[in-house]
Design goal:
Blueprint: H1 2-12, H2 23-38, H3 50-68, H4 75-86, H5 96-110, H6 115-124, H7 129-148, E1 159-160, E2 163-164, H8 165-175, H9 183-194
Helix pairs in contact: 1-7, 2-3, 2-5, 3-6, 3-7, 5-6, 7-8, 7-9, 8-9
Length: 197
């Protein structure tokens, strides 16, 4: 996933690590979006939409991983650092809203990203690591697909056949083989087959 994130960020800007992007800000904004999908408004009837919550968790992971990259640190070392940060981590057992707030608070306070707090969030959102991986790769592929089809210049069409591209992605992921060596390519081809040219 780190390699895919580096490639995506490099596609958007070749010197992305030196741009000084506020990745932490993108994380806490996504936390707010997640809370909207989960529901926090006691003054009106709301039903948690766990599928959308999980998509927001995946978006948070895109920005969170980006925040962890440092110039001169290779991907293998960064992956090892992530694993070390989780060694001995006993989840706080928080609910979705509380885990989201803890991560957002950390991001705002430190202008950084906490893998253990993110782990608490994926646990609260009922995501396994395999689910996170599958959804992350799918969203990463969709982001590449968007860039390849005019997202940056505004010519990309987000609604196809009456559905947003994210809905098509969910359909494609439901039948995709996560064990395939060509998993990412298979998802990309699935998107291409549906995209109105």
């Amino acid at each position: 996933m780190l390699d895919l994130q580096n490639r995506m960020n490099s596609k958007v800007h070749s010197d992305w690590m030196n741009q000084g992007n506020a990745w932490y800000r993108a994380v806490w904004i996504e936390c707010g979006e997640l809370m909207d999908h989960y529901g926090y408004k006691w003054w009106k009837k709301q039903q948690p939409d766990l599928a959308q919550v999980q998509l927001e968790v995946v978006d948070i992971w895109h920005f969170g991983m980006s925040a962890l990259f440092k110039k001169g640190v290779n991907i293998e070392t960064l992956a090892d650092d992530i694993l070390v940060s989780l060694e001995g981590h006993i989840g706080a057992g928080l609910g979705v809203l509380e885990a989201t707030e803890a991560l957002a608070e950390y991001c705002l306070r430190t202008k950084g990203f906490s893998v253990p707090l993110f782990w608490d969030l994926i646990t609260a959102a009922e995501l396994s690591f395999d689910d996170l991986y599958k959804q992350y790769v799918g969203k990463n592929v969709l982001n590449f697909f968007r860039q390849d089809h005019g997202y940056k210049d505004g010519s990309y069409i987000k609604i196809w056949l009456g559905q947003e591209d994210n809905v098509h992605l969910v359909d494609i992921l439901a039948s995709a083989d996560i064990q395939s060596l060509n998993f990412a390519d298979d998802v990309y081809q699935g998107l291409a087959a549906r995209y109105p040219v």
